[in-house]
Amino acid sequence: PGRHPLPALLTPGPGPGPPLLRLTWTPVTRGRCDHPHAEPGYHPSRKLRHLIQARNTQCTAPACRRTAARCDLAHTEPWDDGGLTCECDPAPLCRHHHRCKKTQGWHLDHPEPGTLTWHVPSGRTYTTTPAEYPM
């Protein structure tokens, strides 16, 4: 019974009305990455996952439209081979394309955060880029 305290993210607003939501903004790295969000383990934290999914809103394979929320976060350089759990390495890949990148004839480069270059068995090369947001 009675009122429950507000969650830490909510603060009472000025005057009557709903409480205000306090947010902190974390910019997404563009260009060269200095690994400001690198993490020690294999699985990215919820914060890092959100940054990557906000940057690339869909599977990063060419012409695939599966939303990033329904994709695996796959290390482009295998974690066992020194790949980092940082916003410059994992990328959203649907399960099909996650498996494709591991098969013979497929090669995936990640020259900068959010930009992936796919080399497919036919010899073609495709480049996908991060989502564009209107200003």
Plain-language structure description:
- With 135 residues, this protein is an alpha+beta fold.
- Helices cover 12% and strands 20% of the residues.
- A three-stranded antiparallel beta sheet has the order 5-6-7, with no helix packed on it.
- The longest helix has 10 residues.
Strand content: 15-25%
Radius of gyration: 19 Å
SSE string? EEHEEHEEE
Unreliable parts: none
Instruction: State mean pLDDT (0 to 100 scale).
Output: 84
The helical percent reads 10-25%
Number of strands: 7
Draw up the topology in text.
Elements: E1 10-11, E2 20-21, H1 46-55, E3 72-75, E4 90-93, H2 95-100, E5 107-112, E6 115-119, E7 125-128
Question: Can you give me a brief rundown of this structure?
Answer:
With 135 residues, this protein is of the alpha+beta class. The chain contains two helices and seven strands, in the order ββαββαβββ. The longest helix has 10 residues, at 46-55.
Task: Describe this protein with a few key phrases.
two-stranded antiparallel sheet, 135 residues, 2 helices, 3-stranded antiparallel sheet
